[in-house]
Write a structure and sequence with these properties.
This protein is an alpha/beta fold and about 325 residues long. Helices cover about 40% and strands about 10% of the residues.
């Protein structure tokens, strides 16, 4: 293929060759007329004599011989390791004594799927999907997150100081059984499959009553943005298998679907949201207390929905796919 600054297209080459071969122009005159070197003019004239108009097309730059190319036997070993062990180029290279870039080129040459596109358990290519309209499917999940003791946890001040702060904070929070400890938070998350619009709350447990109350608020949130939920997908947690949860969805004529056991990738959109939440909010900076971290949560969630570009949406935020962004038409 011609590069962007090439002086001759295929039509230009043909005109130059015809001037030389059919009309008898000297090579230097033709080269000057078409703003190329005499050697270039001779090459296209010779190709025209030998192959006619077909000779004006670009040819592959691949050499006829590649004596240094990796042998077929080694390529087969690379492919075998990749298929059986599902390793990346670097680990395969260390095992077989090759350069990682060589392994990478072999994997590309045989068009093997990237590891990120494979199910690590089965090696099968993950089927990615997206529903056609907001509300067709909402992914729901719970993420357990350790609270930060006053003064900062080990991520901020080191393991020894973090443990001391945890001990000093003990007794300030209690679970439902009355046991005092720093404790955990439970982030209940709901993500719309089509738009990736997310609703999230930080709650104290994952009991069925808490999960149902969260869902009712999430349903109202989506409704305020013009989204009528048709189906909900969850994992097989006990709160989602309860009669209370089933009744809450049935009251709104919402179909409940559950993932297959040990297949969290089925609920991948909310799982990816969980990861984003941890990377960009929970562990984004060294917070000095749980109160400080929670104070930034609402702002981060607004940024995620309205301003943060999403790679699956062509760099646009989830709010751009919502039919009633501000809720003024509900």
């Amino acid at each position: 293929m011609s590069h962007r600054n090439a002086p001759l297209s295929e039509l230009g080459r043909l005109r130059l060759a015809r001037c030389v071969v059919d009309e008898g122009w000297p090579l230097r005159r033709a080269a000057e007329r078409f703003q190329v070197s005499p050697a270039t003019a001779k090459r296209w004239a010779d190709r025209y004599r030998a192959h006619g108009e077909a000779g004006m097309a670009d040819r592959s730059s691949r050499p006829h011989r590649s004596p240094a190319r990796t042998s077929t036997r080694i390529e087969r070993r690379v492919i075998k390791v990749r298929v059986l062990r599902r390793w990346g180029p670097a680990r395969i290279a260390y095992l077989l004594g090759l350069n990682p870039s060589t392994v990478h080129q072999i994997l590309r040459r045989y068009k093997l799927a990237r590891l990120m596109h494979l199910d690590r358990a089965t090696g099968r290519v993950i089927r990615r999907y997206e529903h056609d309209a907001p509300g067709d499917l909402v992914h729901v999940d719970i993420k357990k997150l350790g609270n930060i003791p006053d003064g900062g946890g080990h991520r901020a001040v080191g393991r020894q100081a973090g443990q001391r702060h945890r001990t000093q904070t003990t007794g300030k929070t209690r679970d439902r059984n009355g046991n005092s400890h720093v404790g955990y938070s439970y982030l209940h998350n709901a993500v719309d499959d089509h738009s990736r619009l997310a609703y999230s709350e930080i709650l104290s447990d994952e009991r069925k009553e808490t999960a149902v109350a969260f869902w009712q608020r999430a349903r109202d949130f989506f409704a305020a943005h013009g989204i009528t939920v048709q189906r909900v997908l969850t994992d097989n947690g006990s709160c989602y298998k309860s009669r209370l949860w089933a009744q809450a969805l049935a009251d709104d004529a919402i179909t409940h679907k559950r993932t297959r056991p040990y297949r969290p990738q089925t609920n991948g959109k909310v799982e990816r949201f969980n990861r984003t939440l941890l990377e960009e909010w929970a562990y984004a900076r060294p917070y000095q207390s749980e109160t400080e971290r929670r104070a930034t949560f609402t702002g981060w969630l607004h940024t995620y929905n309205h301003h943060r570009g999403h790679t699956a949406l062509g760099g646009q935020p989830p709010a751009t796919r919502v039919p009633n962004l501000s809720g003024q038409y509900t």
